[in-house]
Structure formats: C-alpha cells, structure tokens
Write a structure and sequence with these properties.
The complex is a heterodimer of chains A (438) and B (337).
Chain A: H1 2-31, E1 34-35, E2 47-50, E3 52-56, E4 77-80, E5 84-91, E6 106-107, E7 112-120, E8 126-132, E9 138-142, E10 147-160, E11 202-215, E12 221-228, H2 235-252, E13 269-274, E14 289-296, E15 306-313, E16 315-318, E17 323-329, E18 339-342, E19 347-354, E20 363-365, E21 367-372, E22 403-410, E23 416-426
Chain B: H1 2-22, E1 53-54, E2 57-60, E3 69-71, E4 76-81, E5 92-93, E6 96-97, E7 102-103, E8 108-115, E9 120-124, E10 134-137, E11 143-159, E12 166-182, E13 188-195, E14 200-207, E15 218-225, E16 230-241, E17 246-247, E18 255-257, E19 262-270, E20 281-286, E21 294-295, E22 302-304, E23 314-321, E24 327-336
Parallel strand pairs in B: 1-12, 3-12, 17-24, 18-24
Antiparallel strand pairs in B: 2-4, 4-10, 5-6, 7-11, 8-9, 8-11, 11-12, 13-14, 13-19, 14-15, 15-16, 19-22, 20-21, 20-23, 23-24
The chains are: A mainly beta (438), B mainly beta (337).
C-alpha cells in the first residue's frame, strides 16, 4: 500500500511538471506567431504579430447564420442595410500589460487602431470604402447599401523589452505643430540623427476580418409611363423609344422623379414610386417609407397637368426574411385616384425599376398590364391599347367593366413594389388639356 | 488510506489545473482608466475558432531592407513578403491541423504609415497598377517614431470532421517596419505686425504645392491687412522658393509704416515637425537676401522706429530653423513714410 501511495505521489509530481511546461508553451504559442530572431538572448523575443478576435456586438438585428438561405458554416455575419451596428475587437496588444506577448515586454504606446470597410468589385478584388483611425476597439455604423462587405481591424502597438521600461511612452507626445514661436522649447528629439527610435521599441501588429452580408430590405424604385398617340403615329416604335428614355432617366436620377415641373410631362405621364427624397432614404427597416409621385395629365379626370407627391407606407412582407413591400392602391381615398385615359385615343405604357441592391446601376423592365376586376388581362388593340367605350364616371357607366392598371417590381431579395389602381376611360374628346369634359 | 486519498486529491487538483491551463482565458474585465480604447468591448482576445496568423515582412521593392530613416515626401515602393498570396492557406496553425484548406476570396490589403508621436496613421493608396503585394508609401509627416504597416486578410475554408461540411474563416497576415522620417521642409513661419494705436498686418507663407518632391519646396506668400495696403484683399505672391532666401520685392508688396511708429511683432505659423526655437530670429534688417543684417533689436516684441537709424533698404526679416536644420529666411520690404 505504501508503494502504491508513493507511486501516486510521483505521478502527481510528474503531472505538476508537465502542467508547468505545457502552460509555458501554451502562453508562448498564444502570444507569438512570428518572433524577432534578432532579439538579444537575454531579452524575451517580442512577436511581430499576434491574434485578434472580431465580432458584432449583441444586436437584435444581427440575423441568424442561415438567414435568407445563408450557409451557417460560412462565418458570414448577416446584417440588414440601414441599421446601426456596433462591432468590437480584442487582441493581446490592447491589454493593459504586455506580459502575454513576451516575458518582460512592456507597451511603449497606446494602440493604433483602424477600422476598414471594404467591398468587392467586379473583378473580385476588395476596395476600401472607408478607413477610420479611431484608436478605439469598438466602433459603430450603418451599411447603407446591400452587398458583401469585409470589415477589417488593423491594430498596432509599440512594444519594448524590459530594457525599454524607462522610455517615454508615445501617444501622449506634444503636437509639434503647436510649438511655433514658443519660447523655452527643450525638446531634444532630433530626427534622423542615428536612425534608431528612442525606445528601441518595435511595432507589433494584429489583424482580423469579418465578412458581412448586408441584406436588402428596401423595395425597388418603380416608374410607370403612359403615353398617348394619335393619327398615324407608329405606337410600337413609340413604345420602344419610351422604354429607352425611361431606362436612361431612371438610372441617372437614381429612381427619383426627373422633374417636379408639371410642364416637363406633356409628352408622357409618369407614376414614380421610390425610396424618397434624401432625408427619407436609408431609414431603418421598420421606419422605412416610400414616396409616390404622379406627373402629367392622366391622373385626374379633367386631364389637367400636375405634379403631386406624397409619402406612403412601406410594410413588412415577410417577418422571417425581413422583406418589405410598398403597395400603391389607387382609388378615391388614395393618393392616386386612378389613371384616366381618353376613349378612342390609343396609348401605351411601360414600367421600369431600379434597385439599391446594385446601387441603382441597372434598370429592368417590370411586368405590368391592364386587367378587369376578375383579373382577366386586357389585350392591346394592335400595337397599343384603345378603349372605345367610356366607363367613367362609374355611376353613369355601371354596365361597363372596371379596369385596373397593375404593376409588380421585385428585387433579388424578394422586396416588392406593387401598384393596383383603377384605370378609367373618360368620355372626353379632343380638348383634354383644357379640362372640358363632354 | 489517508495517504491514498491525499494522493488522489493531489492528482485531481493537478489534472484540473492542467486542463484549465490549456483553455483560453477570457481575462479580467478591462480597466477602462488604463485601457480606454476597450470601452464597449466584451469579447475575449483569444480566438476560439481557427484563424491562422501568417508572418509578414516588409521589404523595399528591390528586396533590400527598408532603411531605418526615410525622407519626407520621397516615395518608396514597398513589398509584403507573406505566404498569404500563395496557392493554398496553411494546413496547420499552432499545432492544429487545418484539413483541406483553400482560399475563397482574393486578399484584402491595407497599408498604413503610423506616426507614433501623434498616434495617427495615414492610409497608403495608389492609382497606378501594382502587384498585389506592393504599395507606394509617401511619408508626408516627419516623425522620430513611425512605422510602415501592412495588414492582409484572406477568406479561406477548411473541412469539418462531419462529411460534406466545411467552415469559412479568415487567414490574417500583418507586419510592421519601424522607421523615422527625416524632415526636409523648411519652417512655414510668418509675422503679425501691429502699430501701437494704428493698423495691423500679417505676412505668412503657405507650402504650395504641398509635399512637393523633388526639392526645392515652394510656397505662396500672403500679405494682408492695412499695413500692407491689403485691407480689402490679401496680396498673394505665388511660386516663391521655400528656403533661406524668400525675398519679396518692393513692387510686390511692402510694410508701410511711419518713422515714429512703435511696431509690435509676433511670430505666427510653424514647422511641419519641430521648430528649433533657439535659432528663431526676427526683426528689421538692412537689405534683402543672404544673411540678414539686423537693424535694431533682434526678437523684440516691440520695435520703436524713432530710436533707430533706418537704412534705405529697410526690410522686415524672419529667420526660422527646424530641429532637422531646414531653414526659412524671409525678407519683406519696409517703406517708411
């Protein structure tokens, strides 16, 4: 029994030695990746760089790893556009003491900390969007456009060995620009005398990155144009020309109406649904609105040219996927009473959309049509639409079918902008602009 | 039996300490008085998941070591030597195997110049195409303690033990080269002059174009205020060589005073690094150019013209030198009514 007890004690002592050795090795490994081999044998080697951790702070708007079909093992952080997030990072070079970097090491400066936001270009290369030298290990901000970002934190700090303990800490130094003309300057820190820094401290770096997938929660901007024709006008050619003009203008105006002057809409009438003016854009998802603007002669029964604009709601479409929908429902109580076309006057229409998902760089044609109340599509009469029988005022033409103009634009994320508004055929002859209904 | 229990207890304690020594420690809460930069930080400094850190060395373009002293405004092409640009990520980190490692993205690279004396960094960027591991650094701020740093991150993926699963992470590579930057820009000092119970004026140079290289540096000189007959609009003298012979001609602008005026003179402006205040001189002198020949007191806050025998080519002068030895001498004509 005594022998067994003795054996246990020996094992315990051996364990103790093993633990000491393992712990020392672990500390060395944790601290260093690359060490300065030129350090003197007496001084503990100071690593060139070290590990860093980086992550988003707790936030209910940090989405789960499988958000919108994301790969949970990708390590991408899923965020929403236009939401304030705080990120944080930590490293051995930000600690109070440098002992974990190397035995006897001392910090000779405050850390220098820079937050980078990079975005991938078309060639797959990362371009810097912003670089902020905050010298703080936590930082906040918003992503104003969807896409894949890379948040990088670059840290550095001056670290000296035990021999540098008495050196003046930098980072609290005097601003040399404040010394002009001052008397009694005793600063003797000459530049370029011997090529050595005062403290023989070395800069130790740390770096970490975080991939962030920022998701689109903004409905696309949608434009609809109506253009009337007359006589021998080639309506098919007119339609192509109209689409071409719309595509150019919707991109150059980033989805906003190209004019607020009613006189600029004599050729065609436009309906704009967009994210809003500068102060209205980039609102947090649950505060988002949209703006409906109507311009031209076809949005009132008198045919009077006008430009009107009004903020409208943006609603949650899908709670789980955080998609949103802007819906314009025309009618008597709506900002959009309806579309008023003249009987026996051919017209065409087209709809285009741009999305903030690609920074409104490309325009796409949007599905739109005229349908009856039961959803049956009204076909073109040749190359254009033409109604020969009026249906407005409705109480005078109750026997005539109701027509609706519908359009639906969606982005890749599933955010929608939809329009369903009555389309009235007005019994108006030639003098539409004068408001003289027959 | 007691000894057996003692032995077992010792073994358990030792084993426990061994296990805890191998686990990363979250560490004590930060002392925000001593580490204010950790405000708002709750995460541990010890990574939990694999995220390899790759060594990085910075060299000159020709593969030679970067000199310990650089010269202000002189471009230097630097190269980052790191395996993060290689075909595959490391297969092992800190003794831990990384199964089937592969890159997922191109590297994201940032270069900085840190001025440790101000604890401020300057991001380096170039418009001309360079190799991914190269950058042109132009140190525009002289400093006795600086560093060129390079930080690179590259997204990678490795296999997890479960079949068909893999995990994304970042490999990081960063490094620094400590340097100092020699000041080659002369001081940019000026003078503010006022007459007792009278008008005032000021003259000062502005480096233009800024950070010009090669030498010589150039500056514009501004004259302003009633004493320079520039009450409505400043007089701008462009393209003056910034150095020890900055002479303003009388037809370009002059200080207008009366023979009985008492001039109050004050130095304004600064150096882009540090002025050598022991060498700062200003006052009146005879003639312009070369070494100033003082007339009356040097470095006097007040100059009583009535007590001086004034020469014909009277000038106001300013002679400033910075700690690196760059010298600015400026001469402004004085017209005495």
């Amino acid at each position: 029994m005594k022998k067994f007890t003795g054996f246990l004690m020996v094992v315990a002592i051996l364990f103790s030695f093993a633990v000491m050795i393992t712990a020392e090795e672990a500390a060395d490994e944790a601290a260093s990746t690359t060490t300065d081999v030129s350090a003197s044998p007496e001084a503990a080697p100071i690593p060139d760089n070290t590990d860093m951790t980086l992550g988003m702070s707790e936030n209910k708007n940090v989405m789960p790893a499988n958000f919108r079909g994301g790969d949970p093992d990708s390590s991408l952080v899923h965020c929403l556009e236009d939401v304030y997030y705080e990120k944080q990072e930590h490293s051995l070079i930000y600690k109070e003491n440098a002992g974990e970097l190397a035995e006897g090491a001392k910090f000779e400066s405050d850390p220098n900390i820079t937050w980078d936001t990079k975005v991938k270009d078309a060639d797959g290369n990362w371009k810097t969007l912003s670089s902020a030298n905050t010298n703080m290990a936590a930082d906040g901000g918003k992503f104003f456009a969807p896409g894949e970002y890379q948040i990088g934190n670059s840290g550095a700090r001056q670290v000296g060995g035990s021999s540098g303990a008495d050196n003046e800490a930098v980072g609290e130094g005097t601003d040399p620009t404040n010394e002009a003309g001052g008397a009694g300057n005793t600063d003797t820190a000459l530049v370029g005398e011997d090529g050595k820094t005062e403290a023989d401290a070395k800069t130790v770096t740390a770096q970490q990155s975080m991939g962030v997938q920022v998701h689109d929660v903004t409905s696309p901007d949608l434009w609809v144009a109506f253009q009337e024709g007359a006589g021998t006008v080639d309506m098919a050619a007119t339609e192509q020309e109209l689409k071409g003009k719309m595509m150019e203008k919707i991109i150059s105006n980033l989805g906003r109406p190209f004019s607020t002057n009613a006189e600029d809409y004599e050729e065609a009438s436009y309906m704009f649904v967009d994210e809003g003016a500068d102060g209205e854009r980039d609102k947090e998802p649950f505060e988002k609105i949209a703006r409906l603007s109507v311009a031209g002669a076809l949005f009132n029964e008198r045919g009077a040219p006008k430009f009107e604009t009004k903020a409208i709601e943006s609603k949650t479409l899908d709670e789980e996927n955080m998609t949103r929908q802007v819906h314009v429902s025309g009618g008597e109580k709506s900002a959009l009473k309806g579309v008023f076309v003249r009987r026996n006057v051919p017209f065409i229409f087209a709809a285009m959309a741009v999305d903030n998902g690609d920074l409104r760089a490309k325009a796409g044609e949007v599905a739109c049509r005229i349908e009856k109340a039961d959803g049956t599509e009204v076909e073109k009469d040749g190359n254009s639409y033409l109604f020969r029988v009026p249906n407005f005022p409705r109480d005078s033409y109750e026997d005539q079918p109701e027509y609706f103009f519908v359009a639906k634009g969606s982005d890749k994320a599933g955010n929608l902008t939809t329009i369903r508004t009555p389309l009235y055929v007005v019994n108006t002859q030639a003098a539409f602009e004068g408001g003289r209904n027959q | 039996m007691k000894r057996i229990l003692t032995g077992l207890f010792t073994a358990v304690v030792v084993f426990s300490s061994m296990v805890s020594a191998q686990e990363p420690q979250a560490g004590a809460p930060a002392n925000l008085e001593k580490t204010p930069w950790l405000k708002g930080v709750q995460i541990s400094p010890y990574p939990v998941d694999i995220s390899p850190v790759i060594p990085l060395k910075i060299y000159s373009e020709n593969g030679e070591a970067i000199p310990a002293t650089l010269t202000e405004d002189v471009p230097l092409t630097v190269v980052a030597d790191t395996t993060i640009f290689e075909d595959a990520p490391p297969a092992e980190y800190k003794g831990q195997q990384i199964p089937n490692p592969r890159w997922e993205e191109n590297p994201a690279i940032s270069w900085f110049f840190i001025d440790w004396e101000k604890n401020k960094n300057y991001m380096a960027s170039v418009s001309e195409p360079l190799a991914a591991n190269q950058m042109v650094i132009i140190p525009t701020t002289p400093t006795g303690k600086g560093a060129i740093t390079c930080h690179i991150a590259r997204r990678m993926r490795y296999d997890l033990p479960e079949p068909g699963r893999s995990k994304g992470t970042f490999a990081n590579s960063s490094g620094a080269k400590d340097v100092r930057v020699l000041d080659i820009t002369p001081p940019l000092c000026g003078l503010e002059i006022s007459v007792e119970n009278g008008g005032s004026g000021a003259c000062w140079p502005v480096e233009n174009p800024p950070d010009k290289y090669p030498l010589p540096k150039q500056a514009d000189i501004y004259l302003s205020g009633p004493l320079f007959n520039a009450q409505e609009q400043d007089i701008l003298l462009q393209g003056i060589e910034l150095g020890n012979n900055m002479v303003v001609a009388a037809d370009q602008g002059a200080l207008h005073v009366s023979a009985n005026d008492k001039l109050l003179v004050k130095v304004i402006g600064s150096d882009n690094y540090k002025l050598d205040n022991s060498k700062l001189k200003f006052g009146l002198c005879n003639g312009a150019g070369g070494e100033p020949a003082p007339v009356g007191p040097v470095n006097a806050d007040m100059i009583d013209l009535s007590k001086l025998k004034l020469p014909e080519a009277l000038h106001l002068y300013l002679d400033a030198t910075d700690v690196a030895g760059n010298r600015q001498v400026m001469f402004i004509p004085v017209i005495v009514k």
